[in-house]
Amino acid sequence: MNFEALDEATIDRVIEMAWEDRTTFEAIEMQFGLQEKEVIQIMRRYMKRSSFKMWRKRVTGRNTKHLQKRDFIEGRFRSANQKGS
Predict the structure, then answer these.
(1) Rounded to two decimals, what is the model's pTM?
(2) Which of 14-24 are b and which e, b meaning 16 or more Cβ less than 10 Å from the residue's Cβ?
(3) Dihedral of the CA atoms 66, 71, 77, 79 (nearest 10)?
(4) Start-to-end Cα distance in the chain
(5) Measured between alpha carbons, how far is residue 45 from residues 50, 51, 57 in Å?
(6) Which tens digits make up the pLDDT trace of 10-68?
(7) d(CA 79, CA 77)
(8) How far apart are CA 62 and CA 66, in angstroms?
(9) Taking Cα atoms as reference points, which of 61, 57, 56 lies closest to residue 44?
(10) 3-state DSSP call for residue 26?
């Protein structure tokens, strides 16, 4: 998919999902048809240079951004001490 054909609202949502630590690149691909390299291109193009560099530093090597590297299936870690457990 050519990300340049995406509307502004879709690009905003892709950027939002890419910033979320627990949203995988695979989830973005499933929802929008964008591969990781295309998400990186979007982030580089539509963010300030300093914000892009900060994001790349955060996600590089981060296991939660790749489904195969996660040590959990879905959701968030929930302590047995939390309410409603």
Answers:
(1) 0.71
(2) bbebbeeeeeb
(3) -170
(4) 42
(5) 12, 11, 16
(6) 999 999 999 987 888 888 999 999 999 999 999 999 999 999 999 998 888 766 665 55
(7) 7
(8) 8
(9) 56
(10) helix
